[in-house]
Q: What sequence folds into this?
């Protein structure tokens, strides 16, 4: 999978709740509580396994989830990251 250029990444991020952090895209989510944060993490894990593309998932302050996507084999951000980000956005709507 080819790494995306800066302008394409910026253009896509403009219409999303994700932000760029170096060679990754990141989304922070505040859930209803700890159980919702864990449920979101598990739902993201299931989606990631189906896509064979695995984000970093950090649960902190009991109800906050940080999701970080990057394609390590391309050393940056690819279409795979945005595809999974879109799928995650649908899961977030149920958890927050």
A:
């Amino acid at each position: 999978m080819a790494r995306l250029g800066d302008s394409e990444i910026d253009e896509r991020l403009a219409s999303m709740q994700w932000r760029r952090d170096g060679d990754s895209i990141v989304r922070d989510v505040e859930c209803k509580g700890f159980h919702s944060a864990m449920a979101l993490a598990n739902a993201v894990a299931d989606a990631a396994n189906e896509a064979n593309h695995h984000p970093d998932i950090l649960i902190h302050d009991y109800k906050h989830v940080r999701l970080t996507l990057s394609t390590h084999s391309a050393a940056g951000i690819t279409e795979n990251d945005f595809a999974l980000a879109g799928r995650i956005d649908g899961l977030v709507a149920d958890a927050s």
Q: What stands out?
A: The longest strand covers residues 24-30. DSSP finds three helices and four strands in the chain. The chain has a mean pLDDT of 94. Strands lie at 19-21, 24-30, 56-60, 64-69.
